[in-house]
Structure formats: C-alpha cells, structure tokens
C-alpha cells in the first residue's frame, strides 16, 4: 500500500488497549510514513492519519455510547488543508445493530457539519449501500461514487460492499474503489479490503 502515496488514511479497529493504545497507534502511523492526527481509543477504534505535508487545522474525536458488553464505537474528525485548500474527513465504524447504526449515522453527520470545504466520510458502515445508514448519509448531501464491483467483506472472498468513502462538496472524484494491490496481499492485513479514493479539490 506504500505505493499509493496517500495524503490521508482512515483506519477502523485501531489499537485500543487502555495502557498502550496511543503508542501502538503512533507506531501504526510510523509504519506507513504518516502521523497520527486523532482517534484511537477515545474514538472507539477509529483513527485518522495524514502525510506530513497535510496541515492539520483542528481535530477531535468522541466515543459513542453503546449497550453493555458491546464493542467500543466512536467518531474521529479533522479539518485539514493541502495545497492551500481546506477539506475535512470523518472516520467512523457503525454498529452491528441496525437501529443503533441509524442513530450513529446522524452523529457522523453532526461531526461533518463542523468541517469546512469538501468533506469525506469513511468507514465500515456494516450494511450494504441500500441500507438506512447509507441513506441517512446521502440525505446529508454525501455522494457514493464507489465502484459497485469492488466488494470489501470478507477480505479473502468478498461478497458485500459495506465499507464506504462518501464525498460532499467541491471535490472531483478521479478514482474510488480498488487500491491496485493483489487480493492475496489484501487478505493478510484485515478481514476487510481497503477502499481508495482519489479526489481533486
């Protein structure tokens, strides 16, 4: 994945051990030649990483309350600038519970409202594009430019597209979908396949 030369990477299920989560998140960023901006345990398990050339105007995260014994969930967001142009990103990982997903999608939109310029929402939505959480995000002005043939879960033999990168605002989408890496390599790093988005601001 290093050959992609990314400006921003949104990570789900980042390290969240209460003692060492931050050190491991920073190590994860270092491994990709990026820097940790926000997220990790305070954001459930979402993480925003950026290239050193990207200016961070502001960044924040919040934990989203879950029923007892349910996985940690949260949202991370950042106001960024590159080439003198502002843009925002939101990283999320929605619940397995359909009712909670819809509630969380509304909170994701609230985070996106804090950001200026084009905004990109990325994450594991845990449902296909026809689901209500996707519809809620579309109703908030976000557009799915995804390649419908690029399925993301499970990584070894994917049958579903449940991971999204949605765009709102003045950004021209050049490519959305396949990262250009062999399926055998993709299946080694995660139980999901990554999604790549190339935009021109």
Structural features, described:
It is a single chain. The chain is an alpha+beta fold and 201 residues long. It is built from 4 helices and 11 strands. The strands form 3 sheets. Strands 4-5-6-7-9-8 form a 6-stranded mixed β-sheet, with helices on one face. It has a 3-stranded antiparallel β-sheet with strand order 1-3-2, with helices on one face. A two-stranded antiparallel sheet has the order 10-11. Helix 2 runs parallel beside helix 3. It is globular and about 40 Å long. The two termini are 23 Å apart.
In short:
This protein has 201 residues and is of the alpha+beta class.
Helices, strands, pairings?
Blueprint: E1 8-11, H1 21-31, E2 35-40, E3 46-50, E4 55-64, E5 73-82, E6 85-93, H2 98-112, E7 119-124, H3 132-139, E8 143-144, E9 163-168, E10 172-177, H4 183-189, E11 196-200
Based on the model shown, name its key terms.
201 residues; 11 strands; 4 helices; alpha+beta; globular; six-stranded mixed beta sheet
Low-confidence stretches: none
Helical element count?
Answer: 4
Please provide the ordered H/E string of secondary-structure elements: EHEEEEEHEHEEEHE
Strand order across the largest sheet: 4-5-6-7-9-8
């Amino acid at each position: 994945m290093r050959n992609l030369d990314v400006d921003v990477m949104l990570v789900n299920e980042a390290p969240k051990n209460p003692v060492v989560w931050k050190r491991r998140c920073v190590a994860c960023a270092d491994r990709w030649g990026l820097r940790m901006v926000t997220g990790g345990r305070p954001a459930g398990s979402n993480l925003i990483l950026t290239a050193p050339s990207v200016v961070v105007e502001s960044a924040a995260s919040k934990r989203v309350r879950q029923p007892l014994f349910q996985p940690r969930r949260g949202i991370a967001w950042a106001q960024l600038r590159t080439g003198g142009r502002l843009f925002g990103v939101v990283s999320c990982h929605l619940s397995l519970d359909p009712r909670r997903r819809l509630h969380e999608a509304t909170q994701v939109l609230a985070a996106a409202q804090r950001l200026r310029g084009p905004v990109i929402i990325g994450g594991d939505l845990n449902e296909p594009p026809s689901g209500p959480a996707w519809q809620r995000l579309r109703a908030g002005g976000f557009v799915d430019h995804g390649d419908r043939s690029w399925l993301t879960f499970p990584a070894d033999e994917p049958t579903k597209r449940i991971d999204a990168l949605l765009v709102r605002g003045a950004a021209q989408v050049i490519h959305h979908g396949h990262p250009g890496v062999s399926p055998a390599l993709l299946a080694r790093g995660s139980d999901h396949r990554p999604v790549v988005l190339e935009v021109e601001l």
